[in-house]
Design brief:
By secondary structure, the chain is α+β, with helices and mostly antiparallel strands. It contains 15 helices and 15 strands. A hairpin with a 2-residue loop joins β11 and β12. The longest helix has 23 residues.
Length: 494
Amino acid sequence: MTNPDRLSGLDSAFLHLERGGAHMHVASIMVFAGSAPPYDEFMRFLESRLDRVPRYRQRLAFVPFEQGRPVWVDDPHFNLRYHLRHSALPSPGEDAQLAALAGRLFADRLDRDKPLWEMNLVEGLSADSDGQPRFAVIVKTHHALVDGVSGVDITSVLFSVDPNEQQSERSSDWVPRPLPTTADLVGDALTERFSDPSELARAARAVVRSPRRVITELGGKIEQTGALAWAGVRSAPQTPLNQPIGPHRRYGWVNASLATFKHVKNGLDGTINDAVLTTVSLGLGRWLRRRGMDTAGLTLTAMVPVSVRTEGESGQLGNRVSALWAPLPVYEEDPAAAFSYISKKMGDLKDSDQAVGADTLTELAGFAPPTIASQAARLQSRQRLFNLVVTNVPGPQVPLYLLGRQLTALYPVVPLTKNTALGVAAMSYCGRLSFGLLADYDALPDLGDVVTDFKGALFDLARAAETDLHRWDSADHESLFSAHTPDGETLSTV
């Protein structure tokens, strides 16, 4: 029987992709209204809720000679003070300084000898426009532990929907399970590999009873997987986004009303995801032309993760994602035309073999021997199959609270792979949708320009959808967004 604590093939792939300057952690910046809780009070609050996320007290145990995928084991040296950090911004504590701190934190790789997560309580953030004090919590979690959707589940568990909840009851004393020996790790892995009777018997019966159907289904899976691979290989032109990256990061965000995206998708007849992708396409087109690049006929390829997590799997950790290669027509400057193109292409992709092929690859990853899987992941990181990752995750639409302080803003992070210098994550929360832009520090020194261009692209897209925005002037343009970069610059109206 398969060990439920063993990483899936896809979870393991995120470990193998973590090479060179690539750090495979997802993250978020969470801004709260009110004064920051005292560190020890916050620590006791987290400790009282750790039973809800057992993986937070577990670390990886690696099978010798890669004879099996790693397993989660209890960390006998778990110390919550190591994982909960405490920082303060220098005066005046502006949002740009928070973004700069986040960039530095995101540049640090998580220690694989400890549970793969960290939180940072950040004080010193300037007050809101109405004088309300604020503080932030920056969270990092390795992608091997959690994908974007289950990450939202963790956020919902750690925080409360009750504004009056101040402190949970202390959980029962936690006693770690004994660590497995080297012999245990190897023996369990080999036993699982060769003695899963249900799978072996099922496969044998299928071949005996219906060999033609098995061959047909196998051929179909190969064809579907090939469609996905070919879609990636034939795409991804060379751009300033695609160059070797280092370990250092810049971070910026754009925060807009979710209603704006709903107006766009209704006005132009598509989906919110179409509006997100179109904003990225228009914004990157602006930025490339700003850099002097000829974008005529240029279509970028975005790798778009797609959750395949079922309702019954809600709340479970680990990765349940597939992927699509989405075209971004950066040559198209007309917002309505760009939206129409992307909407049609995404509709076609969802019904194509590419979508099925992506899910097939996810399945196959679980059966590949670890040494083959690791080499495949490393090979993929050297290819230019896509220009950037763009992910859109629906977050909770009800207010969340931490010790009575309301979460007012949530800015997401998607990691960079070896040859991609920019990753774009979008997440909605409580009527707002935020873009988080993570960039390589040296490859994109002009991340502030990218943020500015995203902001202008979304405004033009909203105007093209004939929403109420087309009657607004430039002052309204500024009030619609909250955009910040690590450079501390004031973003001008585009």
